[in-house]
Amino acid sequence: MAYIRTVGDDEATGRIGQLFDAARQRAGRVFGIVRLMSLEPSTLEASMALYAATTTSPRSPLPRWFRELVAVRVSAANDCSY
Asked: In whole angstroms, what separates CA 31 from the centre of its chain?
């Protein structure tokens, strides 16, 4: 659980509501890492663009499963549950 205020589902309107909806379409729910950036939609958009470019982009020479495995391993090394 975050120690900072985040936007709840019942408060998510406008651009942040759209970003939450997109997160639900991608992953079935809004993960904590998305909620942590919910007070600043431009930061959340930039973060999601970076994630897409490095992890899900079809233009990478590395297969997606490998890029996601690296992301999981880095999170584990950082003791991060995200």
From this structure: 7
Looking at every residue in the chain, the average pLDDT score rounds to 90
Res. 43 pLDDT band, cuts 50 70 90: very high
**How large is the greatest C-alpha to C-alpha distance in the chain, in angstroms?**
41
Number of domains in the chain: 1
The b/e string for 14-34 (b: 16+ C-beta within 10 A; e otherwise) is eebeebbeebeeeeeebeebb
Say if residues 47 and 37 touch (Cβ distance below 8 Å): yes
Q: What is the pLDDT of residue 29?
A: 95
Residue 2 belongs to a domain: no
Question: Quick check: 24 pLDDT over 60?
Answer: yes
Domain with 68 in it: 14-77
* 61, amino acid identity: P
